[in-house]
DNA sequence: CCGCTAATGTACGAACTAGTACGTTAGCTA
DNA sequence: TAGCTAACGTACTAGTTCGTACATTAGCGG
């Protein structure tokens, strides 16, 4: 998160709209991720801020709009991160594995984002659907997948004829589940999916799975 | 869900503890799945019941315990369903594919259960962790997977040396994601993962993926 | 350096919500 | 059929929570 780390002011000003908004968004992200939309408390967000509840309503309008703003920023940060990825110099197999690993790492490093997505799905994606910034935003990763897939399919390395969106879903599924459902999975099966000692194991498992799927010999169909 | 479908009474009695409890659980399941734990309203549950709020506290003690009871019953139903599965007569490849398909179907048919699991994870699995009935319950499917894997690995058909829990996670990931995240995924990528027209496509994709992973030629490692 | 507005703080209210005190009755049992 | 208890209903409360009316000031533009 692009946090406000300085203890007092960012640029010497006592009154700083941008800083206040950023601070509210930081704390709100934590609070919504911690407790869900309805579980989150506006008073609690305000209390953990340098400013007061008044400012939340001044800048964002209300709890609902604040949550939308939190989602918009969180998705924006993901987009930024994905735009960094540079795997086109690799051969298709290595490129896909690398992409899967980056997705894996990314999910692991942003559990709050995963929680926000879970919460938003509980509410039928109503906030991102209403957001002008987030409608059909897609993902930079998708374009990368599209190009790697095309190269792999053309060269005959990839036998599966998946499209980019479906492959993205496949990769995300595993990464998302591992983080989002770690609590129930841990209690029910006695295994911590995000145990650091098992990280490399699951990371390799994901890559193996995706590559195996893409390169498997298919019965002619 | 083992619902109470008759409009008035089940067995002629006006006062029927079992029926009242079952009805409360039915409605509570819907309400919690609809709105999340904090979003759910005890008054709303009561209103949609033949009985009153008083009885919820009489039988379950409180909102928290009611939610736990809802989870216990939901997991119990899953267990029952999984105990039906009979794939041991098939060869390992067919058996795993069948198991994956059953998991796929099951997730699709019980979106409320998926939502409850998402909600419980938002709350750190605190309810199932505290429940005597649900600690380390495991899953009947797990035993089946264990046996199929052993057979497949022994015969040399399966090259991957996954264990049953990890394979279960892999299969569940895809099934869970498809249902749980369909709303955000739909808005962001313009694709409905639970579109009935695409059902067979995704069902086959899951099976292909798992089989490809299990039977891929591995570099000696 | 003066005034105007964006930015901020305080105190409060209206509505909601989990939970309960108290009273009533169905229906089994002896 | 009498009576006892499990099952049920009504009405209420205490506490919480989103949101706002009103008052204040920092600091930029002229």
From TrEMBL, chains A, B:
Transmembrane segments: none annotated. InterPro entries: Homeodomain-like_sf, HTH-type_TetR-like_transc_reg, HTH_TetR, NicS_C, Tet_transcr_reg_TetR-rel_C_sf. Pfam families: TetR_C_29 (PF17938), TetR_N (PF00440). Residues 41-60 bind DNA. Keywords: DNA-binding. Signal peptide: none annotated. It comes from the Bacteria. Coiled coil: none annotated. Residues 18-78 form the HTH tetR-type domain. Gene3D superfamilies: Tetracycline Repressor, domain 2 (1.10.357.10). This is TetR/AcrR family transcriptional regulator. It comes from Streptomyces hyaluromycini.
């Amino acid at each position: 998160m692009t946090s406000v780390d300085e203890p007092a002011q960012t640029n010497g000003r006592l009154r700083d709209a941008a800083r206040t908004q950023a601070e509210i968004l930081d704390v709100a992200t934590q609070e919504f991720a911690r407790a869900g939309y309805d579980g989150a408390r506006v008073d609690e967000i305000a209390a953990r801020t340098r400013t007061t509840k008044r400012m939340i309503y001044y800048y964002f309008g209300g709890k609902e709009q604040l949550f939308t703003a939190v989602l918009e920023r969180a998705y924006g940060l993901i987009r930024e991160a994905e735009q960094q990825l540079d795997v086109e110099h690799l051969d298709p197999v290595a490129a896909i594995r690398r992409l899967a690993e980056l997705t894996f790492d990314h999910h692991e490093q942003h559990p709050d984002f995963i929680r926000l997505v879970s919460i938003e799905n509980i509410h039928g994606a109503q906030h991102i659907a209403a957001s002008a910034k987030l409608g059909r935003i897609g993902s930079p990763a998708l374009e990368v997948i599209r190009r790697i897939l095309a190269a792999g399919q053309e060269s005959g390395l990839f036998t599966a004829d998946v499209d980019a969106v479906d492959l993205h879903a496949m990769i995300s599924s595993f990464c998302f589940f591992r983080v989002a459902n770690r609590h129930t999975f841990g209690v029910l099966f006695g295994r911590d999916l995000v145990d650091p000692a098992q990280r490399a194991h699951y990371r390799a498992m994901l890559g193996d799975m995706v590559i195996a799927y893409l390169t498997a010999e298919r019965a002619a169909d």
